[in-house]
Design goal:
Phosphatase 2c, domain 1; 10 helices; PPM-type-like_dom_sf; 389 residues; alpha+beta; seven-stranded antiparallel beta sheet; 15 strands
C-alpha cells in the first residue's frame, strides 16, 4: 500500500480540521455513533505549496481513501514535484494529470485481486463463491477527493465527487467548485444518459477513485450491461482562482456534509456555512464547531420532520469532515492560533479550547435555540461580533 508520504511533511499552521462520525438515530431519536471512520484528511506543505485535502471513503472501508491521499501527495511533492514557478494553466494541467496517475496506480494495486477474482469465478463451489465475495468487498471500496493547493496568491481546487470548497468574506461567500459530481447535477445526469444508462439506477457519487465494480466491471451489473461506458469515472475538475484580498477564510466540506445538508433541504450551502461559521479560540475548534453544528441541524430536522407524516428524513447521518483555513490579512500581526491535525467529536460535549484574548467569544453550540429572549440576544451578539470584524 502507498503509505506514509503525508507524514513526511509539516502540518499547515493556518488550518484546523473537524470531524463527526456517521450514526443512526435510534427509536428514541438518539444518535448511535458508528465507530468506523471511512474518510481521511490532511493539511500539509512542502515549504512552497500548501495542500488541504478531504478524501471521503465509501463502501465499507478507508483503505482507498488512505491510498489515494498518500499517493497523490507523492505525485505532487515527490515524483517530479510541481514547481511554484509554473504558470497557473500548467499547474491546473499537472494537478489533473497527477490525480489521474493516482487513479491508475490504484487500479494497478488491485491487479492481483482482479486476476484472482477472474479465476475464482470459474470455481462454482461454495469456497469459490466465498472467495469472490471477499474480493468484491475489497474492490468495491472507493473514495472521492476534494483537494486545494495554495501557491503564493494562487488557489487551485480539484474535485472528484461532491465535496465543496467555499471562500468566505465579510459579505457573500463564493462557491469555488460549482460542478458537484452526483446525479442531481445536470451535466453528470446528461453524461450518464449519453451512456445509455438511467441515472436513477446509479448511486452517488458519480465520480471517484476505486469502486471498481462500477468503474471497470460495470458490465456485470444488469442495469449497466449495455452501457457505452462506466457510470462512475475518476476524471476530476480543476479550477484556478487568484485569491481575492477580501477573502478571509477557505472552508472545505466533505461529501457527507453536502449530502446531509441537502437531505434537510438546505438550498444554499455557502450561505448556510456563512451563517454558522464563528471563529473560536483555535482553528481546530472553529472547524469542529462547524461540523457539530451541521450534525445537530440534521438531528433536529430528523426529530421535527419525522413528526410530520408528510416528511421523511433518513435515520442515517453521513460522516462529516470540515477543514477551516484562515487566510492571512494584509499587514496583519502574527497568527496566534494553534492547531492540531484533527478533532474528535462525541456530539455530547464540546472539545475544550485553549486560552485566547478576552475579546473573542468561545465556541458554544447554540443550534436548537429558535425563539425566545435568549435567541434574540444571541442573534444580537453574533451580529455585533460580525460587525467588529
Amino acid at each position: 500500500m502507498e503509505d506514509g508520504f503525508v507524514d513526511q511533511y509539516t502540518a499547515n499552521t493556518d488550518a484546523g480540521i473537524g470531524t463527526v462520525h456517521s450514526c443512526r438515530y435510534s427509536k428514541q431519536k438518539k444518535p448511535v455513533q458508528n465507530n468506523d471512520f471511512l474518510s481521511c484528511s490532511t493539511s500539509i506543505n512542502n515549504g512552497h505549496i500548501k495542500l488541504y485535502g478531504i478524501f471521503s471513503g465509501f463502501n465499507g472501508g478507508d483503505y482507498t481513501a488512505k491510498f489515494v491521499m498518500n499517493r497523490l501527495v507523492y505525485e505532487l511533492f515527490q515524483e517530479n514535484p510541481i514547481s511554484p514557478t509554473l504558470p497557473p494553466l500548467m499547474v491546473c494541467k499537472e494537478f489533473r494529470r497527477r490525480f489521474e496517475n493516482t487513479a491508475e496506480r490504484y487500479l494497478l494495486s488491485n491487479a492481483d485481486a482482479l486476476n484472482e477474482r477472474l479465476l475464482k469465478m470459474e470455481d462454482h463451489s461454495e469456497a469459490g463463491k466465498n472467495a469472490v465475495s471477499e474480493i468484491n468487498q475489497k474492490i468495491r471500496q472507493g473514495t472521492t477527493a476534494l483537494v486545494v493547493l495554495i501557491i503564493n496568491q494562487d488557489l487551485y481546487v480539484l474535485n472528484c465527487g461532491s465535496g465543496l470548497a467555499i471562500a468566505m468574506n465579510s459579505e457573500n461567500p463564493v462557491q469555488l467548485n460549482t460542478n458537484l459530481h452526483d446525479k442531481d447535477n445536470v451535466k453528470e445526469n446528461q453524461r450518464i444518459r449519453a451512456l445509455g444508462i438511467d441515472p436513477d439506477t446509479v448511486l452517488n457519487p458519480t465520480r471517484a477513485i476505486g469502486d471498481l465494480q462500477r468503474t471497470h466491471l460495470f458490465e456485470e451489473t444488469e442495469a449497466f450491461k449495455n452501457a457505452k461506458g462506466p457510470p462512475v469515472i475518476s476524471t476530476p475538475d480543476v479550477q484556478y482562482f487568484r485569491i481575492d484580498p477580501a477573502w478571509r477564510h477557505i472552508v472545505l466540506l466533505s461529501d457527507g456534509v453536502v449530502q446531509n445538508l441537502k437531505e434537510v433541504e438546505v438550498e444554499n450551502i455557502p450561505t448556510e456555512v456563512s451563517v454558522r461559521l464563528i471563529e473560536d479560540h483555535t482553528l481546530t475548534s472553529t472547524a469542529q464547531a462547524l461540523a457539530d453544528s451541521f450534525a445537530r441541524k440534521h438531528l433536529d430536522a430528523f426529530i421535527t420532520m419525522n413528526d410530520d407524516k408528510n416528511c421523511f428524513i433518513s435515520n442515517h447521518r453521513e460522516e462529516m469532515t470540515v477543514i477551516y483555513v484562515k487566510l492571512p490579512e494584509i499587514n496583519a500581526p502574527g497568527d496566534f492560533y494553534e492547531t492540531v491535525d484533527s478533532a474528535f467529536s462525541t456530539m455530547e460535549s464540546t472539545n475544550a479550547t485553549m486560552a485566547d484574548p478576552p475579546s473573542r467569544v468561545p465556541y458554544v453550540d447554540a443550534v436548537g435555540f429558535y425563539s425566545g429572549p435568549n435567541f434574540t440576544e444571541m442573534k444580537r451578539l453574533i451580529t455585533m461580533l460580525k460587525k467588529r470584524k
